[in-house]
Design brief:
Blueprint (H helix, E strand, L loop, with lengths): L26 H14 L4 H9 L11 H34 L2 H39 L2
Length: about 140
């Protein structure tokens, strides 16, 4: 095929694969090959086998579902935290405008106690996030 001119169809390939090898697997070997392909996120069996034979590197990606769930819950928690902050400002403004100074101070004292508890919960969330990040960074190595 010295002449690469053709009238139609697919263009001819310069380095055509002309040697074929048949490989037979038993059930256990086939299962192992399938598992290895799933780990490497490969879809084409012949390309994957070529990479194994010729020692070309291939990536094995491990997805941890707990990370996605944790991030979603943490985002939801921070959204609620922002909502509480907005409601806190509205509450303080309403207390100042509609109540006497003594009554407003008693309610503000209760609000201050609840805020201190919320800060404690927030610090626990931050420490748990740091632990989770350390654990995740150890897994990714």
């Amino acid at each position: 095929m010295t002449n690469l001119f053709c009238k139609g169809g697919r263009p001819p390939v310069a380095n055509k694969c002309s040697h074929h090898v048949k490989v037979s697997f038993d059930d256990l070997e086939w299962d192992e090959l399938t598992r290895m392909m799933e780990k490497a996120n490969a879809t084409v069996k012949d390309t994957f086998i070529k990479q194994l034979i010729f020692g070309k590197p291939f990536k094995v990606l491990v997805a941890d579902k707990s990370l996605a769930v944790y991030c979603a819950k943490l985002s939801e928690f921070f959204a609620q935290y922002r909502t509480i902050g907005v409601n806190y400002d509205l509450t303080v403004r309403t207390l100042r405008e509609n109540f006497t100074e003594k009554k407003a101070m008693t309610h503000l004292y209760k609000l201050e106690k609840a805020t201190i508890e919320m800060i404690g919960v927030m610090s626990q969330v931050m420490s748990l996030s740091e632990k989770f990040e350390q654990q995740w960074s150890l897994k990714s190595r």
